[in-house]
Amino acid sequence: MTRRLTTLFVLALVLSVLPLGATLVLAAPPETTSVRLTGLRAEDAVPAVDGLARAAARAAERSRPAAAAEPFAMVGLELPAGGAAEVRTSLDGRTWGPWVETELLGEDGPDAGSAEASRVRPGFTEAVWVGPSRFVQVELAGGSVEDVAVHAIDPVGLAPDGTAEPARTRVAVGTPAAEAATLSGLSYVSRAEWGADETLRRAAPEYASDVDFAVVHHTAGSNDYTAEDAPAIVRGIYHYHTRTMGWDDIGYNVLVDRYGTVYEGRQGGLDKAVIGAHAAGYNTGSFGISIMGHFAEEAPPAVAVAAMADTIAWKFRLHGISAYGTAVARNGSTVDTVSAHRDIGSTACPGDAFYAQMDQVRGLVARNTSRFTDTYGTVHAPSIERIAAAGVTTGCGDGRYCPTARVTRAQMATFLTRAFDLPAGEPVSFSDVPDGHTHAAGIAAAVSAGLASGYRDGSFRPEQLLNREQMAAMLQRGLHLEEEDGVRFVDTAASAYRGAINALSTAEITGGCDEFRYCPIDAVNRGQMASFLARTLDHLGR
After folding, report:
1. pLDDT recorded at residue 2
2. Which pick of 233, 382, 455, 489 has the fewest CB atoms within 10 Å?
């Protein structure tokens, strides 16, 4: 009866959004069920594995094989304080799958003080996909296996003999399944399509005023699932988060499988600022996205990383976020706009191998969110985005920034005026800066503030290329830094601006053009200038 009601519910939900005249193909998902298994007993002796007493080597205790009351395909554990566990499963009690490392949920979960957080209990691991199973073994380091509870979850509709029923949710409206749902250019598998039982949700979604940053996760568990398994894994995580953990809904805003398919997570609208439960203390104002799998030693497939980056970029375009920016979280801490979970919490998520790719992820997001068409791949791209976000530059025209173009004295005056938010200066009276000159206002402001000056012959030489020592002097004056004696770089001993260069070095606004040189008379290009100005903005706290 329950499965029939679930089927009718999903059918009604899909029909409500189906375009008039469209063809509906629907196979209702099976009801997701779970059982809690306790009373594990330790083995008297740990058998050797590949010639080694594996558990003994880990100073761990292994449970005897235990049979669940129902077949299952996912497992989550409740562990005693300080415990770390691995789990393996079997369908027949004789042939066992590999040992799978579990990962504590740790700082996943709702924000403190919320009604959702009041139901959180410590000690739960992520739920991991193990495939059709009936028996389970746990290996625990730190505690007794008798204190472990196993949550065995069946999101695929396993028969009592352990064989999987063929039921899968499929909605086709003249498009492939993964493209059945689209939203302003984002293709994804909707909750209705992956088979979300909306009766499991405990509360209506809550919203932040805006989204300011993204948090990258992995779900942990197996990397060996098939594309057909993926919707069931999402259903299993959803069931675990709501029924076992007591959360209002699935914790992530979006999930991505290893094949690059994107799944709608927490209900409320992917184009909205839905508050998730993926990073306690950082949920409000963030967008939580997780690749399904465990990536401590094995990096996620490139297609999955690309799909995740495309989804973040879509979200960032919607909310006007820079891939290389920073944001202030609601708890007051400053975070990167593309942060890994471990950057903001005490967790290994998203795994060492995945974490090593975070710069690549930011680059992929930036390629699809940059304000300019010609900055992808340049080392100065983060700084260019930084000064653009601060209103210091609008580019050189036609959607470009022109990072390799040389900077003139007149252009630098305008950039300085914006970076330091200088007041309007007295009208300029230089012989070569006529009324109506593009940079007349910037030159007037920079000269009046003492950041720039003209030449003795009464000219400003606005089209003269700016060199690195001149730029150092302008920035040192704007920041009110004391000039410093000494020779920091081997090529500045004869420079009239050596004191300004040294001051900028102390302030970490420059590190020179290489390990030993500053290259004082080299012309400055727009990319290099962006990096100097971005660090200047940081120094100013802007």
Report:
1. 41
2. 455
- Model-level pTM? 0.76
Q: What do you get for the CA distance between the two ends of the chain, in Å?
A: 61
- The separation between CA 459 and the C-alpha centre of its own chain, rounded to angstroms, equals 51
Distance (Å, whole) CA 55 – CA 422: 67
| CA dihedral of 318, 322, 326, 327, whole degrees rounded to 10 | -10
Nearest by Cα to 453 from 435, 436, 477? 477
Q: Residues 6 or more apart from 450 whose CB is under 8 A from it?
A: 477
Residue 67: phi and psi, rounded to 5, are: -95, 130
φ, ψ for residue 150, nearest 5 deg:
-105, 125
pLDDT score at 164: 54
* Of the candidates 426, 509, 523, the residue with the CA atom closest to the CA atom of residue 475: 509
- The number of beta carbons lying within 10 Å of the beta carbon of residue 345 is 17
Contact 275, 205 (CB under 8 A): yes
Strands (E), 117-195: 128-141, 149-154, 181-183, 186-188
CATH number for 33-154 (one of 3.40.50, 2.60.40, 2.60.120, 1.20.1550): it is 2.60.120
Q: Say which CATH topology domain 193-369 has.
A: Lysozyme-like (3.40.80)
Q: Which of 86, 91, 42, 38 is nearest to 64 (CA)?
A: 42
20 beta partners:
none
Please provide residue 234's backbone torsions phi and psi, each rounded to the nearest 5 degrees: -65, -40
CA 167 distance to own-chain centroid: 33
Q: Is the bond preceding 301 in cis, omega lying within 30 degrees of 0?
A: no
- Contact between 464 and 409 (Cβ < 8 Å): yes
Reading the block at residue 455, the tokens are: 């030449």
Q: For the chain, what are the domain ranges?
A: 33-154, 193-369, 392-540
Rounded CA-CA distance 473/310 in Å is 42
**pLDDT attached to residue 45:** 63
How confident is the model at residue 163, as a pLDDT? 63
Task: For the chain, list residues with pLDDT below 70.
Answer: 1-27, 45-58, 161-184
Query: Distance between CA 88 and CA 162 in Å, rounded?
Result: 16
Return the bridge partners of 75, or none. 128, 152
Closest CA to 463 of 436, 435, 439: 439
How far CA 460 is from CA of 38, 417, 431, 463, 500, in Å, comes to 82, 16, 8, 9, 21
Helix (H, G, I), strand (E, B) or coil at 4: helix
Tell me the per-residue pLDDT of 6-17, one tens digit each, with 9 for 90 and over.
433 443 444 444
With a CB cutoff of 8 Å and minimum separation 6, the contacts of 46 are 53, 54, 55, 56, 62
Q: How far apart (Å, rounded) are the C-alpha atoms in residues 350 and 298?
A: 11
The separation between CA 191 and the C-alpha centre of its own chain, rounded to angstroms, equals: 21
Per the CB < 8 A criterion, the answer to whether 298 and 105 are in contact is no
pLDDT of 108:
83
